[in-house]
Amino acid sequence: MKITDEELLRDVQRVTGEVGESIKNYGCTLTQYDILGGFSKKLIIKRFGSWNNAVNAAGFDARPWKRSPHFEVLREVL
């Protein structure tokens, strides 16, 4: 049986509610979903094109992307 888009979005909404992000209208992060979600994050990204697209389709705002300070260090090393 094929998993519907609606099932995937409901699960994103569920996890968002569990971590309390819905109060701020942000969807859960990919890491949070990976830990608490009921489906594969790869499936969701494949179905919606990106994690942010899935979060938006679930009715939340995607978090603004921030570079980690570790990113700059890694960039210098590599």
| Helix and strand run | HHHHH
Whole-angstrom Rg = 14 Å
Proportion of strand residues: under 5%
Helical content class: 55-70%
The biggest sheet, with number of strands, parallel, antiparallel or mixed sense and barrel status, is: none
Number of strands: 0
What is the CA–CA distance across the termini?
Answer: 44 Å
Shape: globular
- Stretches where pLDDT is under 50 for at least 5 consecutive residues are none
Mean pLDDT score, rounded?
87
Number of domains: 1
- Output the number of helix runs: 5
Structural class, by secondary structure, is mainly alpha
Walk me through the structure:
With 78 residues, the chain is mostly helical. It has one domain. The protein is 59% helix and 0% strand. The protein has 5 helices and no strands. Helix 3 packs across helix 4. The chain is globular and about 45 Å long. The model has no long low-confidence stretch (mean pLDDT 87).
